[in-house]
Amino acid sequence: MPTETPGARTLTTAKIKITTKCNRSCGFCIFADGARGANMPLETFSAILDRLETVPFQLLHINGGEPTVHRDFPALSRIARARLPDRTTVLGTNAITLARNKRLLDVTLDYYDRVLIGCDDEHGNYAEVHAIVPVLRAAGKTVVVNSVLEGIAAHRLAELADLCASNGAVHVTNYVHHIDVGQPANELGGRCARYLDQHLMIELDGSCYRCFNAMAKDDSEFSVWDDDFTAKVFAPRRHHYRFCARCHEYADSGAPANEQPPTVWGPRSRSALTALRAC
């Protein structure tokens, strides 16, 4: 782990997309290509960990696609824990394979500290989530269930809220893509200009962008293969990504969103989840 000096910057999350394959094809998803996706090779994953060892960060978030359908998910998980034993490991999943495959569930219990689960009508995973949340919580894992408001009925939301409350899990909601919640277009400012809530997103090919929420194929700022990778991770943000000009996080302006429910994944509800992550 790199030595930190007083005032040194620290990433909140380094998030690696290990696959674009998924066992679901949600219409709102911009992260996966269904069964047509690709897997990150083990060699690439190991090389990315080499780079991340040069950067101070708190959470290693393994995501996709659906990461548990990667053929090397057990090996990737074991390598990550062995190489970065002092980091909190987070798995982003729809929990379908965890409920149906004991081997993959055991891998998750062995190598992950926190599990973030997407659950709504398009995921179609209510039975699996209701089965797996109590198992994860009984093992002492932090569990966050996230639902897209445009894609879930009120009674399903209530059922998930009850499930989480009775098992000590967290239930959060967001709008599609976590982005357009009704604010006017922002100037670059606030948290993102100061780069205070720091998240590094790493694609299959090693391209990088600095936002926890979304991605656009042509908006990558740099790559893990760049010689000055570490410096670029902490360089000031000066430009919009194309997908985030209307994002609450981008300006942190305090302007109210139009009819935003209090549980929406915005800067205030996110702050509670960030406390869990520090999910």
Name a few traits of the molecule:
single chain, TIM Barrel, disordered C terminus, alpha/beta, nine-stranded mixed sheet, globular
Provide the helix percentage.
25-40%
SS-derived structural category: alpha/beta
How many domains? The number is: 1
CATH superfamily: Aldolase class I
Shape: globular
Q: What is the topology, as strand order, of the major beta sheet? A: 6-5-4-3-2-1-7-8-9
The low-confidence parts are 1-7, 177-183, 251-279
Question: Which secondary structure elements does this structure contain, and how are they paired or packed?
Answer:
Blueprint: E1 11-17, H1 42-52, E2 57-63, H2 73-83, E3 88-93, H3 96-100, H4 102-111, E4 114-118, H5 126-138, E5 142-148, H6 154-167, E6 170-174, H7 190-194, E7 199-202, E8 207-209, E9 222-223, H8 229-233, H9 248-251, H10 267-277
Parallel strand pairs: 1-2, 1-7, 2-3, 3-4, 4-5, 5-6
Antiparallel strand pairs: 7-8, 8-9
What does this structure look like?
This protein has helices at 42-52, 73-83, 96-100, 102-111, 126-138, 154-167, 190-194, 229-233, 248-251, 267-277, and strands at 11-17, 57-63, 88-93, 114-118, 142-148, 170-174, 199-202, 207-209, 222-223. By secondary structure, it is an alpha/beta fold. It has one domain (11-277): TIM Barrel. α1 packs parallel to α2 and α5 (126-138) runs parallel beside α6. The longest helix has 14 residues, at 154-167. The protein is globular and about 50 Å long. 36% of the residues are buried. Mean pLDDT is 79; it is low at 1-7, 177-183 and 251-279.
